[in-house]
Amino acid sequence: MSFEFLAVDAARPEGGRTPLARSPMERAARAAGARFEVRDGWNVAVAFEGESLDAPAWWADVSHLTKVEVRGPHEIELGQAASANGVWRCPVTRDRTLVLGDRSAEGVDLTSSLAALAVGGPQAREVFARFCALDLRERSMPLHAFRPGSVARTPGYVLREDENRFLMLFGWALGEYMWAVVADAAGELGGAPVGVDALDRQVARA
Length: 206
Hints:
The protein has helices at residues 26-31, 124-129, 175-187, 196-205; strands spanning 21-22, 34-39, 42-48, 58-61, 67-71, 82-84, 87-93, 96-100, 108-109, 114-120, 146-151, 154-162, 165-171, 192-193. It is α+β, with helices and mostly antiparallel strands. Strands 11-12-13-10-4-14 form a six-stranded mixed β-sheet. A hairpin with a 2-residue loop joins strand 11 and strand 12. It starts with 20 loop residues before the first strand and ends with a helix.
């Protein structure tokens, strides 16, 4: 599965200035009470009032995460991602790799073609079970597993980043729809959105 056909230029010069890049879920996050800051040219939802990673489930818009499809053979086992220094290398096929979080990676930049939501908490798998066809149980989705498949009836990828933390990637145009799907599923379990600063603090503690 490749999203290269969706690739667009999110930073076209206008009057000599580069416009602020925005997530397709910004409006939904703002309506949910997000506080925004500009990070590396992106308007990022950094926090929500009363947010907590101790909630049964939570989700965060991380669409600003750099995503690059690299062509060429690799030695990563299909279905299992490799992580080093905050960069994920996720094998799509035996000669295509989706690299997450590395601005220096050379390939097709899909940052503004693939939106992304981090979903976590003790009830994260139950959240996915309500809209995702992928089997995320431990035996099928071990730590650092990376799976393509149907996510809310649309092509996507799911990466298991940590014990109870998953990254979901999907087409940019479906951002608001996917936010609503996840919000409905997680909200029924007592979940709520969080900002990227809370995620960063979680990673730092780990």
